[in-house]
Each structure stands twice: as structure tokens, then as C-alpha cells.
Amino acid sequence: MINVFTEWDPLKEVVVGNIGQWTDIHPDFSFRLYYQDNLKNVFLEKSIKLQQRVIHQRQDDLDQMALTLEGQGIKVYRPEPLERLMPFETPVFKEWPSPCHNPRDQFLILGDEIIETSCQWRKRYFENDLLRPVLLKQFQEGAHWVASPRPLMNEKSFDLIHLKTHGELPEGWQEDESALEIMFDGAQCLKFGKDIVMNVRTKNHQLGFEWLKRHLKGRFRLHQVDLTDNHLDGMIMPLAPGKLLINSGSMPQKLDLLPDFLKKWDIIETPDVSPEKKQKGTVSLASQHININVLPLSPKKTLIFDDVDGLSNKLYDLLDHHGIEPVPIRMRHCRLFDGGVHCASLCLNREGELEDYS
Predict the structure, then answer these.
(1) Cα torsion 172, 177, 178, 183: sign
(2) Among 234-248, 262-276, 295-309, the range of highest mean pLDDT
(3) Which of 20, 184, 235, 258 is 20 to 30 Å from the Cα of 268, by its Cα?
(4) Of the ranges 108-112, 133-137, 177-181, 257-261, which one carries the lowest mean pLDDT score?
(5) What is the DSSP string of 271-294?
(6) DSSP state, 221?
(7) For the stretch 259-281, what's the b/e string if a residue is b when 16 or more beta carbons lie within 10 angstroms of its beta carbon?
(8) Sign of CA dihedral 225, 244, 340, 105
(9) Nearest to 198 by CA among 211, 182, 214, 187
(10) Which of 167-195 are b and which e, b meaning 16 or more Cβ less than 10 Å from the residue's Cβ?
């Protein structure tokens, strides 16, 4: 049963990601635009080889996450694992598929509605199909199911503001705003009852904001912010009414950019993260402050994870101090796979009705 109005109401049903067979990330045009400053130029000219050991560890951690949630009395669904590594081709581009290991990214569950959002990375074009059996079951049980327009994703489709900023535009390139398409991820949005906060950085995001605003007209208030490149759950996470966890790296300087109703909430900064000692050739696609990407199970309980040794202990103590019971699990390689436990899940059913928290 689909029913979600907040990020913190008691969780009853959830999707936990799956990896299956995956060996390489092939950096392309959309990959460069998607990851922006988190991507080093050295990785643009070759594929990122994913060691099978790392894949197996991530899969094992996702499986353990599912078992932990089931142990909390929560019903868990899983996407189909990616089993066939076959290239696909659209009229515009060729790519290799990706697994549905971060299902939060491309779906927005709001009230009793499933909203498929318009992918921003070409390789994820058919990723949602791996979750289709779960969504079809929810539809048959009464959920509404819609999708934002699927983009063609040619080079004219994208806002190149990041490349403009860094002087990396292709020679002779000229922007054609009439060709820009709706592109945004579900993970750019966080739910606060009647209020939805959405991170908007590019003109593609702006089109997505306008589409979503019109779609939700009369039902929800949509607030636009510009706090990060893409996903909002790497910057802020509501834990309970009036309690907002923030990324201690850059958010303290951006609090004035929050919607007015959130400026009244108690601010909890994540523990400082020591710079990682990276081995030569390793890749990090997410911020070192990935520890903010937690999954509230109720207003008094939150799933946290250990990506760097000792990290969960610091966050454990912090949340406990604020009256929130931490449930710790292990989740390795979160920066490589660009997601903690919030990204790796998709909430389908939480107790509670639509309320106004502003």
C-alpha cells in the first residue's frame, strides 16, 4: 500500500536496492554533467573498473540492510538484480545498463502516488524496469502511477552550466534553450507533509520543478532551493518534526537558503569526517560527508551506517543525545556507489496522514 507524506513517519514498507551483475561504469557526456565536481578529469577518458570483491561486499551490505529492516518489523521489497550486461541503443545514444541499487534516485513516492522521474544519466534509462514488478503490485493494490516525460538525452538536451563555469564547453557549441528537456531525480526532493523541498541547480532541473509544481498543484507546496549539484539528501535530512540533520561540510554556510519554515527547526550537524586515505586509482562519486544519508524509521529511531571506521559511533552518540535511537549497520563503498542507506532505499508506506508542519 503506497502512503508516504514525510521522511520520518513510522516506516512499514520499503524497497532496498540490488546490484547483481555489474562490472564497469562507462563515463560519457551525461556522466560528466551528473557528477560535476566530484569527478576527477582522469576518469573521463576510460571506464571505471569495479572489482568483483567490491560488488559482492556492496551486495552483501544491501542484503544485511534488508534483514535489519525486516527485523524491525518492516516489509522489504527488492528490485530485480541486473543479470544481463548487454548494451542498449536508443535513436540518440548507446550505453550499458545499470542496476537499481539506489532506487531513491528515480522515484518520488508522494501520498498514494508513484512518480517516476526523468533520469539525468543515460545509463539509467531502463533502470526503472528492474523495479516494475514491485510497482505493478502496488498499482494493482490501488496506487496511482505516473511518470514525468522521458527525455531524448541528446547533447542539446542538457544545460551545460557546469562546463561553462569551468571553461570546458565543446568548441563551437551554442545553447538552444528550446531543446532543453525535463530532467530531475526523485532524490532532489524531500517530503515535509504539505511541503516538498526540491534542489534546483540547472535549467533541466528548473523544467522538472515546473512540471512537478503543476502536477501537484492544489495538493502540496513545492519549495525551490539551490544547495548542491543534485541530490538534497546529501545536504539535509529531516529526522522528526522540528529536527533537521545537516551536512557539516558546507551546509552551515547555507542555512539562510533554506525555506522559511525550516529556519525554525533545530539544526543537528553531522560529526566531522576526517579526510579518507585513498588508494591510488580509487573513485569517489559522493561527498565525504555521505554519513548524513540516513534512513529515519520513525521520529524516534533512525537507521545509520558505517562507511568509514568509527563514523557510525560518532553519529550514534549524536543522535542518542537528541533523543533518537540509532540503528547501526555496515554499508561499505558508499562514496563509490554514491549512496548511503537513504539512497539505497525507497519508502513505499509510512504510517500517518497529510499534515502541515510549516
Answers:
(1) positive
(2) 234-248
(3) 184
(4) 177-181
(5) PP-PPP-PPTT----S-TTGGG--
(6) E
(7) eebbeebeebbbbebeeeeeeee
(8) negative
(9) 187
(10) eeeeeeeeeeeeebbbbbbbbbbbbbbeb
Q: How far apart are the C-alpha atoms of 197 and 64, rounded to whole Å?
A: 31
Residue 158: inside a domain: yes
pTM of the shown model: 0.89
Say if 344 falls within a structural domain. yes
| 357 in a structural domain | no
Would you state the cell numbers that stand for residue 132, as one nine-digit string? 516494475
Q: Average pLDDT of the chain?
A: 87
pLDDT tens readout for residues 312-323: 678 999 999 999
CATH number at residue 94: 3.75.10.10
* Antiparallel, parallel or unpaired: β 94-95 and 88-89: antiparallel
Determine whether 154 is exposed, middle or buried from the number of CB atoms within 10 Å of its CB (0-12, 13-18, 19+): middle
- Residue 300: which domain range? 11-274+286-350
Given a contact cutoff of 8 angstroms between Cβ atoms, the answer to whether 234 and 289 are in contact is yes
Report how many domains make up the chain. Answer: 1
pLDDT at res. 33: 63
Q: Is residue 356 part of a domain?
A: no
